[in-house]
From TrEMBL:
This protein's name: Uncharacterized protein
Cited Pfam families: Il2rg
Superkingdom: Eukaryota
Alphabetized PANTHER family for the sequence: CIDE-N DOMAIN-CONTAINING PROTEIN (PTHR33887:SF6), PB1 DOMAIN-CONTAINING PROTEIN (PTHR33887)
Composition bias, Basic and acidic residues: 148-157
Length: 157
């Protein structure tokens, strides 16, 4: 058995071709090798998605080792990430030409992830809970003690 047998490998599918990559490097280096090997343009943001629809967010963790984010001997689909607008919504596009034929469930998941989230808990008109944290009122000053009937001052005669 050679030392090569111990190297963790992962498979990435693009245009119906599988390539083998070694994830024992930074995410930045892995993405650059993927970009080079798969002939992707420099201005495209790349990422990987597994067969279950989990985006690996390699571009967001460029200094981390890729082996912390991806598993060996797994197959990943190469995707393009595009920022849609100022609110930070992301759109994911498969770089596999016929993903809807090969894995329609994964295509649906990518489409679902790409839709902007327009609802949140507190956006409804009839909301019952306040979105602002309530300020606590300080304890009121204790009122002076009222004198007992025996302690009342008697008027001077």
């Amino acid at each position: 058995m050679t030392s090569y047998d111990f190297i963790m490998k992962m498979y990435i599918t693009v245009h119906n071709q599988e390539e083998i990559f070694n994830p024992w490097c930074t995410s930045h280096n892995l993405l650059e090798w993927i970009r080079r090997k798969c002939n992707c343009e420099d201005d495209v943001i790349l990422d990987l998605v597994d067969q279950d629809g989990q985006v690996k967010n390699l571009a967001g963790r460029l200094k981390d080792y890729a082996c912390q984010l991806v598993s060996g001997r797994e197959t990943y689909i190469l995707i393009r990430v595009e920022r849609q607008n100022d609110n930070g919504a992301l759109h994911y596009t498969s770089l596999l030409n016929n993903l809807e034929d090969i894995n329609p469930d994964l295509m649906l998941k990518l489409n679902s992830l790409s839709r902007p989230h327009t609802r949140s808990k507190n956006k409804f008109k009839g909301k019952t809970s306040s979105s602002k944290p309530q300020k606590l009122r300080p304890d009121p000053q204790p009122s002076p003690k009222r004198p007992a009937s025996s302690e009342k001052k008697k008027p001077n005669k």
